[in-house]
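for ur thesis appendix - TRAF-interacting protein with FHA domain-containing protein A. copy paste whatever u need, i formatted it the way the template wanted (i think)
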Amino acid sequence: MSSFEEAETEETVTCLHLTFYHPGQGEKMMFRCLDFCQRQQLRADDTAKFGRDPSLCSYSLADTRVSRIQFSLQFYRKLHTSEYGFEIKNLSKKTKLTVDQTELGYLNKIDLPWKCIICFGDYQILAEIQEGEAVDYFETHLHLAEAPILQERCLPSLQPIPENGISPSFPLCQGKSPTEIDENEL
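the 3d part is after this line
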């Protein structure tokens, strides 16, 4: 047998890609504590915590408006399958966390979809799971977005609707306002 045949099979590693955006990232430098250069490996039983306190969090955001621990991500194996996933839990008592269209209050948790947008305050994080086979560890790979993720991905932004119910993005035809017509007049 050749050494190629005797070599152990290389297993792939589940990797969570996280792309960060904040409108003030240029002047406030809130991402200065994050390592965007290389993948970081974590043990499968570690909980990846994100927040302001570097002594408690694996991923620290330098912003006083962020909770000491904002949220956590837990790697797990899905029941009766060989698939792996992540569970996201909001650990902030003051700030709600939104995963796509699902709002999480304090201590609420859900499974992280394979591709989603996590929002809290002015922060937008695009999360994408790259599946792997390794059971003892997973990796994270951080990226920095230049433009807002919500606009870039063509996902609906949660813009307030004025009380008159008319959205400024849908201009009225020829400046006329809607009028009520009796069905018998048609």
